[in-house]
């Protein structure tokens, strides 16, 4: 067993883990933060996207041990109490959620994008979520939602 | 609680803090350890049980100052073993002076993978379709390999020896990729054929660097990906063009020659015949686009 410290959504966790466990497994099973989903488990679908030091990664391809001491952000860390984050609210308001399985990953990719570019073009939004699959194929509404989120967060048209 | 089936096999995780420590560990566990930088190629292979699980995984990410993308007038571009695909993609000097490399990295995988994966890892993985390979071949990059016994420099075109096989021997780590300056006024174009516009492997990748001068082809380098057991230079095609006046006929002839010297295979992604035809079309398109920019 390996002793590690994970900092998830600003909170520090002391954990004893097996070295072959992924960040995704530890987030879901040990921390019980099940908002982050496992899709393919192979880095293709983006359902498990979290932010590692502000950048999107596939948490299914990161060892928990590799994330030692780094800043991890998951979907659970976005809302402020009962108040949804503007990106989450935009997904609700603009029909960006269908079955919901890709939503956490989509929103984390959107968060990383909007942290970098406050008023992205449609092309930039498409590139920003290029690593997230929506198997309901609801991409148009997702792109609309991210555009609306950018506006409500103060970005210009 | 959901049951997961795609677990990693068991291994010990080692995180050296210096290159010396990493090389010592690799020497000590020779044949029983695998090195990871981003891990985005090795971990899926382990999950799929495509390769035998190594008892030890040596993670280079704890080594400081190895993630550089730097440029010097005399040394050219240097990429450290931990330089991520994203770091190279967002480097102004790469965008400005090494456009062929920029086009290749921009076409790769997804933002998530580019944030994590490294250029060095893409090369060491040794797959014929690696996007950075045709670009680095046309840039005539050199690779600095280190082991406990010392270091050696290998030319990019000598690095690959077969599918998933490189000249790296047990105990060696790719420490740095060195990219010399291109002749000023040369232009580069990377074209990649894929069914999807992102998150896909190249069916054919063609990198062209060309230096046209008063309508004459002064310098030409053509790199091909996914159409031979290794990424390759199309040297016969280059010979057709070198020193010649650039005309439609000669470009077509060079593209045809590139197709003839490629050695594609049939697989589930495309038949060999189609790949060869696409080498011809993309080579001619890449040359034409490069000279008209």
The CATH topology name of the largest domain in chain B reads Uridine Diphospho-n-acetylenolpyruvylglucosamine Reductase, domain 3
Per CATH, which architecture of the largest domain in chain B?
A: 2-Layer Sandwich
Number of self-contained structural domains of chain B: 3
Number of helices of chain B: 12
Largest sheet of chain B: 5 strands, antiparallel
Rg from alpha-carbon coordinates of chain A:
15 Å
Q: Structural class of the secondary elements of chain A?
A: alpha+beta
Multimeric organization: heterodimer
Any idea what the shape of chain A is?
A: globular
Overview of the molecule:
The complex is a heterodimer of chains A (157) and B (293). Chain A folds into two domains: 2-75, Roll (Ubiquitin-like (UB roll)); 86-152, DNA polymerase, domain 1. Helices cover 32% and strands 16% of the residues of chain A. Chain A has helices at 23-30, 86-93, 103-116, 122-128, 139-152; strands at residues 2-8, 11-17, 49-52, 55-58, 71-73. A five-stranded mixed sheet of chain A has the order 2-1-5-3-4, with helices on both faces. In chain A, helix 2 crosses helix 5 (139-152). Chain A is globular. The model of chain A has no long low-confidence stretch (mean pLDDT 96). Chain B is α+β, with helices and mostly antiparallel strands. Chain B is built from twelve helices and 14 strands. Chain B has a five-stranded antiparallel sheet. Chain B has a four-stranded antiparallel sheet with strand order 11-12-13-14, sandwiched between helices.
SSE layout:
The complex is a heterodimer of chains A (157) and B (293).
Chain A: E1 2-8, E2 11-17, H1 23-30, E3 49-52, E4 55-58, E5 71-73, H2 86-93, H3 103-116, H4 122-128, H5 139-152
Helix pairs in contact in A: 2-5
Chain B: E1 12-14, H1 19-28, E2 33-36, H2 42-47, E3 56-59, E4 69-72, E5 76-80, H3 85-89, H4 92-97, H5 99-106, H6 111-116, H7 119-125, H8 132-138, E6 142-147, E7 150-155, H9 156-159, E8 160-162, E9 165-166, E10 173-179, E11 187-193, E12 204-213, E13 216-225, E14 232-233, H10 235-241, H11 248-261, H12 272-292
Parallel strand pairs in B: 1-3, 2-3
Antiparallel strand pairs in B: 4-5, 5-10, 6-7, 6-10, 8-9, 11-12, 12-13, 13-14
């Amino acid at each position: 067993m390996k002793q590690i410290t994970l900092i998830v959504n600003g909170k520090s966790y002391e954990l004893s883990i097996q070295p072959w466990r992924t960040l995704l497994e530890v987030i879901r099973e040990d921390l019980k933060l099940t908002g982050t989903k496992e899709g393919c488990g192979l880095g293709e679908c983006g359902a498990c996207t979290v932010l590692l030091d502000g950048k999107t990664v596939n948490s299914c391809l990161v060892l928990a041990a590799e994330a030692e001491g780094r800043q991890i952000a998951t979907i659970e860390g976005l809302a402020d109490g009962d108040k949804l984050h503007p990106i989450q609210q935009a997904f609700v308001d603009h029909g960006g959620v269908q079955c919901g399985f890709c939503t956490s990953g989509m929103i984390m990719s959107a968060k990383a994008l909007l942290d970098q570019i406050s008023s992205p073009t449609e092309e930039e939004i498409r590139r920003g979520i290029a690593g997230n699959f929506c198997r309901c194929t609801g991409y148009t509404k997702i792109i609309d939602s991210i555009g609306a989120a950018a506006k409500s967060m103060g970005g210009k048209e | 609680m959901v049951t997961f089936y795609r677990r990693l096999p068991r291994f010990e995780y080692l995180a050296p803090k210096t290159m010396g420590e990493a090389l010592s560990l690799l020497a000590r566990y020779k044949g029983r350890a695998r090195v990871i930088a981003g891990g985005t190629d090795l971990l899926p292979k382990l999950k799929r049980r495509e390769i035998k699980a190594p008892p030890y995984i040596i993670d280079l990410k704890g080594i400081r100052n190895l993630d550089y993308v730097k440029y010097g007038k005399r040394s050219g571009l240097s990429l450290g073993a931990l330089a991520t695909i994203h770091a190279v993609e967002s480097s102004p000097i790469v965008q400005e002076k090494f456009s062929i490399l920029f086009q290749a990295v921009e076409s790769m995988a997804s933002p998530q993978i580019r944030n994590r994966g490294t250029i060095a890892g893409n090369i060491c993985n040794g797959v014929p379709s690696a996007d950075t390979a045709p670009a680095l071949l046309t840039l005539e990059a050199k690779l600095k390999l280190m082991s406990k016994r010392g270091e050696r420099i290998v030319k990019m075109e000598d690095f690959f020896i077969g599918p998933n096989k490189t000249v790296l021997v047990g105990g060696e780590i790719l420490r740095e990729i060195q990219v010399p300056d291109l002749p000023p006024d040369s232009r580069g174009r990377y074209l990649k054929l894929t069914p999807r516009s992102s998150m896909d492997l190249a069916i054919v990748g063609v990198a062209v660097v060309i230096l046209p001068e008063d309508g004459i082809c002064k310098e030409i380098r053509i790199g091909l990906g996914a159409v031979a057991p290794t990424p390759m230079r199309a040297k016969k095609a280059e010979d057709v063009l070198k020193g010649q006046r650039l005309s439609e006929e000669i470009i077509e002839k060079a593209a045809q020659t590139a197709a003839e010297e490629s050695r594609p295979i049939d697989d589930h992604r495309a038949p060999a015949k189609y790949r060869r035809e696409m080498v011809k079309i993309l080579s001619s398109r890449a040359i034409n686009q490069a000279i008209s920019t």
